[in-house]
Amino acid sequence: MLSYLIFTLTLGGIYALLALSLNLIWGGVGMVNLGLAGFFAVGAYASALVAIAGVPLPLAMLLACLIGAAAGILATFATIRLRGDYLAIVTLGFAEVVRMVALNERWLTRGSDGISGIPAPFRAELGVDGFNLFYLALVSVIVLAVFLTMRRLDLSPFGRVLKAIREDQELATFAGKSVTRFKMQTFALSAGIAGLAGALYGHFQTYISPDHFQPLITIYIFLAVTAGGVGRPVGALVGAYLVVFFLEATRFLGEIFTVLEPGQVAAIREILVGLALLCVLHLRPQGILPERIAPAPKPETSP
Amino acid sequence: MTIVAQAILNGIMTGMLIAIPALGLTAIFAVLRYVNFAIGAYATVGAFAAWYVNTRFGLGVFPSALVAFVAGGAVGLIAEQTALARLRPSGALAVAIASIAVNLILENVIRFIFGNDLQGFDLPIARDWRFAGLRFGPQQLQTAAIAIAIMAAVFLFLRFARFGKAMRAVADNPDLGRLFGMDPARIAMITVVLGAGLAGVGGVLLGLDTAIDPMTGSRLLLSIFAAAVLGGLGSIPGAVLGAVMIGIGEELAVLVLPATYRSAVGFATILLILSLRPAGILGERNT
Prior knowledge:
Chain A is an all-alpha fold. Chain A has helices at residues 2-29, 36-52, 57-76, 84-104, 106-109, 123-155, 157-167, 169-174, 179-205, 216-228, 233-250, 253-256, 262-283, and strands spanning 115-116, 207-208. The longest helix of chain B is centred in the first third of the chain and has 31 residues, at 2-32. By secondary structure, chain B is mainly α. Chains A and B meet through helix 4, helix 10 and helix 13 of A and helix 4, helix 7, helix 8, helix 9 and helix 11 of B.
């Protein structure tokens, strides 16, 4: 039971990083990244592959971060000036292509077999239980560090420019801010955090395959950020842990309703995730922990 | 040479099928100004409704496609009324995200009822026809003919029917439409029924020659988006043109790439067109 709790908390930390990543770009400049799972995968594969090749782990994780950021720039540099929903389509497509590459380029990713034997730090020295505890601490420290950076960023001049862009892009331009550059930097940073989350995931699981990076993860993180409160790092943090506990709790549905087949239980879980997202959007769009300075009301859209 | 010609022919055929849900997506965007990610699930709902009446009651392709239109349109209307319409004041992005949730829910409702297995339609198997070295499947020709008929009907509806004209007017300028006594909310709902219904028909037409499963629609999403974006989001003829180009592009690409990269063509096209000409080939609006 304890090891299960440790596992859940570690996964919660990794989701928290993803939620902080989404919150930065969504709560920051108001753009959505529907390809979160793709950047997560890029980071996981990058770190796993270079670590197996012999690169020390801290360096491998840093590299995953950089490659995630580079992938972010690559996927969006051409489209970042466009309306938010265009960017959403592009990022969704990006995640699909990442999955396709992971499935097909067997020489690099071993296809659907996945990569096993990813180095886990100090696992031999600490034993399984010790390792799990150590890894939970590692992930939690990194989450805390990223969280504090995000909060600092939120209050910094950079963060204020981002919110200005979110509220009124043209006004921000008039104020002499290079909107495109700010958006690009933010997207790269956000994708980098997602890459780091992926690296942490890979070295924790020691095995990754394309199945681990389903688009569903992106929806989980959207639920986490909307539930927690878009635009507030602490909201993203709380939301991520809540979502992981929600997901783990619904795992026991099958034991209660034994008449259902496993596939049906999985379907119910996903329906619940979708319903939860809809409920939050309708009933409490500002989330559990709303932004301190509420976003400006949107102009009436027609019809 | 024949291989290329065959690929182009197949591409035109598939393109005309992708055009149907792409029309649905672009019509909803034109009037309601949001990108509906649930279009994939509407296609799946249509495909399963058609499959059900086809295998249970032995209905042919044409009546099955009609059932798909009704099922897709009904589900689309319910989803719009319960989950999406009230979010419109919060902006297009909020509605788009809600439509992703709708997509997930519908997909899993189907999975809950019918399971994950592949389901095939009950259709007579016919030999391919050959003409000038090219293969034509009779089934392919029939679905293409249905697709052309539907496209013609949509064009005529928008061009001449009162509702169709009102739809175009509201898409252009809702306030002016209101001034002329049109009810934008009602027109929006009719657009949703039409758009989701078209997605439903597209789902069954695309599923006919292969098998369908709960993910059928979601797998098509990238091609549908690519078609609509290439033609210009919100442009009805653009969606058709874009879809045919995407169809040909996909078929040609799989001549040189592994077949699993098919939908990467859609992504590459979206990226290219958005960086060079965001309004698409036939789009008028600057975004």
